[in-house]
Amino acid sequence: MATTTRMIHLGRKERPKRGSLLLLIPGVASVVLLGILPLFIVARNSFAVADDYGGIVGGFTLEHYAKLLDPVYSKTLFFSLGLGLLNTLVCVVIGYLTSYYIVSRPEGKQGFLLLLVIIPFWTDFLVRTFAWITILGSGGPIAGVLGIFGLSGFSMIPSNAAVILGLLYSFLPTAIFPIYASMRSIDGSLKEAATDLGCSWWGVHRRVILPLSSPGILGAALLTFIPTMGVFVIPVLLGGGKDPLVGNLIVTLYTEFRNQPMGAAVSMVLLVLMVLSMALVGLLLKRASNKKKGA
Amino acid sequence: MDRIVNGIARGVFVFLYIPIIAVIVYSFNAAGTNTRFEGLTLQWYADLFQDGALMQTLRTSAIVAVLAATVATAIGIMFALGLARYRGRGKGGFMALIALPLIVPEIVLGVALLSVFSATKVPLGIVTLVLGHLIVSLPLATLVLMSSAAMLDPSLPEAATDLGCTPWQTFTRVYFPLLRPAVVAAWLLSFTTSFSNIVMSTFLSGVGSTTLPLKIYSSLKTGLTPSINALGALLILLTLVIVLAVGVSQMRRILVDSRS
């Protein structure tokens, strides 16, 4: 009798399992065929020999990676890395402060404030970027106001400052969401207790809120850093294309120079950078959770 | 100190809306260039709809976005339901796999697909665009659906089966009605992701399959025109409609809760 029941249970358990595996096939196949497999081809192409027209011939060479050390490429790589890190830092700091502000509002108002962040976030990326051309450009409101005071000829377009502003504007909402998510789950009484025990504003943040929201902060950093490193529209529209970023390099190599192996090598550098930054974030998250367990 | 933080945060909210307001205001600017504000006009909106080339790119973008969103949502529904019922090992692995395109820089995914299509001599066009947009919107759609599917009571489909429903009837009568808000959200999320996509489209559009963002981008390189502001204002309106259609609470779950 007991065996029969067990068999029935096993039978019921087995059936949906096989059926559910079938349902996963289209998703898995899409990611493998349109994501993973193509990435392997890029990896392969980055080591391939090119013909005079940039086409893939085959063979194996490290020449493309060696070329990355050339100042033409290395300058762009380091400039992008610097700008990417700067933007991530600024987005995370301002995102942290904004999230803290939203969390400290009453629950009903939080939804509305979040909606105010969602709308610009959802607005077309190009619209968000070209709006700054109007605002910062020679005919914009800033130039107009300065003109009244006799300061004519103002224009921030193109400039690296405009690029930094454009990057901040594009990725700030991305940084706010994860930080807000982790801050919302912090028990409000912890902050009160810390204040009662004599913690200053800085103390409360350093000892309570910052450590407890660290998963969100690290997530925000990653979600800001990865897309910032792939940006190519902002440097062209707001920076005049004078100081290209890695994204511009890849687009130029593929679409204008048709140099696939070199483009593949630059893409691989970007991919490796992402894997490294994710590993770093993973390590920091693990350390943070170990600390929590230890305490 | 709290007062300073509040000040900064309020500044952030103003900052977030400066460009949006600027685009809308300048789209009504009667001056032909962006130099001065010279009164109101609707001329730029009229110009927009008479621009045949622009309307063609709008059509391409809409076709691609509808196809990509529909396929992404269909695959996402299957994946989410499959994973919700899956009791075996490797669940985390499947979730990581479907989220993979989110963590690879989009530009790298774009060149990767371009490499495949150029190696297999597949001509670039609507099909390649759909495939490219599919892979970037699939993880978003699936994650939205997964969070809803996980909340379904597992005894419901069992009850349906016991009552004699075929798997297809279980889907149409039980799963689909319960998942409908998530399905709508996933579809609209995929649609906007595809419709505004510029990175993938840069690599995967062929001759005659220019999308709207590509067209805007190339015309911006030569200078901002007032009709682009009008187009921008319309896209802002579209954003508002979609955000409200998905619903604030749903949006909050997609953007905040699924990331925590």
What does it look like?
The complex is a heterodimer of chains A (295) and B (260). By secondary structure, chain A is mostly helical. Chain A has a single domain, classed as MetI-like fold (Orthogonal Bundle), CATH 1.10.3720. Helices cover 79% and strands 2% of the residues of chain A. Chain A has a two-stranded antiparallel sheet with strand order 1-2. In chain A, helix 8 packs antiparallel against helix 9. The longest helix of chain A is centred in the first third of the chain and has 44 residues. The relative contact order of chain A is 0.12. The N terminus of chain A is likely disordered. The model of chain B has no long low-confidence stretch (mean pLDDT 89). Chain B has 260 residues and is mainly α. Chain B is globular and about 70 Å long. Chain B contains twelve helices and no strands. In chain B, helix 6 packs across helix 8 and helix 8 packs antiparallel against helix 11. At the A-B interface, helix 1, helix 3, helix 4, helix 5 and helix 7 of A face helix 1, helix 3, helix 4, helix 5 and helix 6 of B. Chain B: Belongs to the binding-protein-dependent transport system permease family. CysTW subfamily. Chain B: It comes from Leucobacter aridicollis. Chain B: It is a multi-pass membrane protein.
